Amino acid sequence: MENPGSMIEPVQIGEFEREPVPPSHFKDWRKFLGMYAGEHAAGTEFVIGPLFLTAGVSAFDLIVGLLLGNFLAVLTWRYVTTPIATADRLTLYYKLEKIAGRKLVIGYNLANGLLFCFLAGAMITVSATAVGIPFDMPMPALTDTVPTSISWVLVVLGVGAVISVVAAKGYDAVSRFSNIASPWMVMVFLIAGIVAAKRLGVSSISDLWAVWGTGSEPFPGQIKFTFWHVMFFAWFCNAAMHLGMSDLSVLRYANKNTIGWTTAAGMYVGHFMAWISACLMFALYLKSTEAAAIFAGGGVPPVAPGPLAYEVVGIAGLICVVVAGWTTANPTIYRAGLAFQAIFPKSSTVKVTLVTGGIATIAGLFPAFAMKLLDFVAVYGFILAPVGAVIFFEHYFSQKLGLSKNYAEAKGISFNIAVLAAWLISMVVFYAWSLYKDVFLSFFTLPAWVACGLLFLLFSKIFQKK
C-alpha cells in the first residue's frame, strides 16, 4: 500500500494546481524512482504481510501472485495513468473539475477525505502497537473490532494527538523526515525478513516451500486466499492511484511516458519484498510457544506489528514500526485535511487538519480498520477507481463519439449528472454483486471501472444531446 503524500507533497502542493505544468518544471526518472520506492514501503506493509498468512495463502500463490499482480499494477501506471498525465499536465482534481464540475468534485473530496481518515486511523493503530510495548499494553486480536483496554485507548489517543498536531503545524519537517527515513525503513524490512527466514531455517526456495508448505486453513473470520486473490489484490490495492488517476497529480511532472516504469521500484520493494518480510516475521511468531498456547485455548494470535518487529530485530524494529506508522498517518491526515478544506474553504488549514486528525484518531481506537486492512484497501480502491475511468474514457473516446471534451468547463456547469450516475451505478451494482455472491471485492474493481467508463459515455451521449 502507498504512503500517501510523504514523498510527493513537495512536488505537487503549491505548484500549478490550476494550470498545466510548464516544460521548465519537468523531472526525469531519478526523481520518481526513489519517490515510489520509499512511498510504498510504509506502515501498511507491517499489517498486510501477516494478513496474507491469516488468509491461509500458500508460498507459491503468494510469491507468484505478487510477482504478476505487481507487474500488472506497473503496466497500469505506465500505459493508463502516465500517458494522460503527460498529455494534459493537470492535477486529478482540476482535470475532474473540468469534466464533472466543481460541486461534484466536492463530493469526491468528501469520499476521499473520509477514506484517508480511516487509513490514517489504521496507521495510528500500527504505531500504537509499538508504543504500547514498554507499558505491557494488551495487543488487539485479529478478531477485535472495538477498543479492548483503557491502556489501548490512552496510547492511541496519545499517538493520534501527536500525529495530528504535527500534521497541522509541521508538515514540511515531516516530509523531509520521511524522505530521510524511507531508505532506512526499507533496510529494516529487508534485514527483518532475512533474520526471520534464518530463524525459520529457510536458506533456499525449497526450504521456504518446506516451512510454508501449501498454506493452511484461514483464521476465523478470514477468507481463504488463492493465487487469484493475491494477484488481484496486488494489482488493485493502489487502484485509486493508477486506475483512479490520483497519480496524475504526480506524474504530470514526468518528462516522458517511460517514467511510468519507475513505479516498479515501489511495487517490488514495498509490495513484494516488504510484504514477504512481514509474512516471515508473522510466520516466526506463529511457531512461538505464546502462539501455540493461544491456538490451544481456541483463540487467534494477534497481528500486532510492534511485537512482531521487536521479536525479530529488537529496538530497531520497534522504532521502524513507530516511524512507518507515523510517516504514513501524518501525510494521510494532511491530505484528508486538504480534501475537507476544499469543502469548507473559509476554515483554516490548521483547524481542519486538527479535526481531521481527531476523526483519524477515533478510527484508530477501533482495531478493525487495521485488522481488516485487506478488505479496507480493496474497498478504498473499488470506490475511487471508477472516477479514473471517467477521465480515461473521456480522454480517448469522447471526440470520436462526437462528445464535448471537458464538458462542465465548456458549458459552465458545476455538476455533470453523467459522471455521478456512471460512478454510483457501477459502484452499487458490483458492490451488491460482491456481497450477494460473497466474492472478494478486488475481483470486481476492473469490471466496475470499465462499466463506469462505458456508462459515462452513454449518459454523456444522452445528456449532451438534451
From TrEMBL:
The keyword Membrane applies. The keyword Ion transport does not apply. GO terms for cellular component: plasma membrane. The chain crosses the membrane at residues 59-80, 105-130, 150-171, 183-205, 225-244, 265-288, 308-329, 350-370, 376-393, 413-433, 439-459. Keywords: Membrane, Transmembrane, Transmembrane helix. GO terms for molecular function: cytosine transmembrane transporter activity. It comes from the Bacteria. This is Purine-cytosine permease.
